[in-house]
Amino acid sequence: MLDNQNNPMQVQSVTIRLNLKDGSSKELGLAGNLRWILPPDDSVDLALSPVAIDPNVYDYLSIQDSLLATEDVIKKESIAEGMKLVFSGFFYQVPGLKQIEPIVREGIVAMMPDEELVTTTGKKGNVYLGEVHAFHGNSGSPAFVDLGGARGGD
Predict the structure, then answer these.
(1) Do 78 and 138 touch, CB atoms closer than 8 A?
(2) What are the tens digits of pLDDT across the range 110-122?
(3) If 59 and its partner were Cys, which of 19, 75, 122, 145 is the partner (CB 3.0–4.6 Å)?
(4) Nearest-5° angle of CA 126, CA 131, CA 137?
């Protein structure tokens, strides 16, 4: 992991709260420097850490990597400005007493420039803008483009 000045740093611990199948929730503390997976493109501000979660105990959905919007998918599906975005998140002001209560928000794809722009990492890369009403707790949430209905394209 990198700090705000792009210096390497270690994550001492991570705590995640997960909903259980029985309707309650549980906090899991993961100590030590976890194995982080970083994208090969250093303009992308993303980090993943593989964590094995038992689907028989925890209530969650996974997203197949085939649903990710690669350049080929964007072209094939004619994804463009004006299309509807939907994303989930955690409204931390109302965390839920027994379990995490997710929220679902929507907006539109507002900008998809043809040129590379400077990203949050200070490097040039692909930047897309969604006009959405987001809260703290939406960070890291996947955003989905609604591909339903009529749309143009080749």
Answers:
(1) no
(2) 999 999 999 888 8
(3) 19
(4) 90
